[in-house]
Amino acid sequence: MQQVIVELDDRTIARLNRVAPPSARKRSEFIREAIRRALNERLEQDMERAYRQQPQEGADIDVDPSTWEAAPRKRKAKR
């Protein structure tokens, strides 16, 4: 595994510490899982965009881009 150094603002680190304390590698696993989810979401968005731009009409696949749900709206952080 490679290490990545990321700087977080005080508010974000405080919130992170509440849900994933730094002890027992809980924080590292939480961050890894968050990154995996974000990457999978981005891949899904890219795939959806590609199918909408160039639908695969007549192909032997069962994909209907109209069935994709709208992406969830990003919630604004409370200040």
Question: What can you see in these coordinates?
Answer:
The protein is elongated. The chain contains two helices and no strands. The protein is mainly α and 79 residues long. Helices cover 48% and strands 0% of the residues. The two termini are 35 Å apart. The chain has a domain at 22-56. The protein has helices at residues 10-19, 26-53.
Question: What fraction of the residues are assigned to beta strands by DSSP?
Answer: under 5%
Q: How would the global form be characterised?
A: elongated
Structural class: mainly alpha
Would you identify the regions where 5 or more consecutive residues have pLDDT less than 50?
none
Number of helices: 2
How far apart the termini lie comes to 35 Å
Overall average residue pLDDT: 82
Following the backbone from N to C, one meets helices and strands in this order, namely HH
Percent in helix = 40-55%
Largest β-sheet summary: none
Radius of gyration: 18 Å
How many β-strands, per DSSP? 0
